[in-house]
Request: fold
Amino acid sequence: MKIIIKGKYCSHCGESDCKHSKPNEEAKLEFFPVYQERTCSIKEFNQKFGKIEGLWESKGTEHKEIECDNNGCYCDNGKHCRRRMEDKKYWCIDFKSLSQLQEFFNEVGFCKIYKEDQDGYGLTIDLD
Ligand SMILES: [Zn+2]
Ligand SMILES: [Zn+2]
Reply:
């Protein structure tokens, strides 16, 4: 189970994926897919935002529409458009078991865990 460990912001490079930003001894840099999602159909996107942002299919790959399963969402017709953008490098740890994850939590003490809905990748642990 790969979990992204949020890199420290490096004031030298201005990056969070450089060698100075390594958040933890065990963390390794790996590429993760990045997805973009908007709360409208592809047709709606192109009508509303196409002029300014470019047509939905003009950027990224794997363009598709997915059914919205979020009751609190304000989308009109229950459809979201989704596309895959260029992979990005993140620090991550590949946890082999829940007990390894438990050990990690015991070691670091306080941390925040969240899921980046916008980007569509898995869990992120923020040690700050
Ligand atoms: Zn740096
Ligand atoms: Zn929705």
Q: What stands out?
A: The chain has one domain: 2-126. The first strand starts at residue 2 and ends at 5. The radius of gyration is 18 Å.
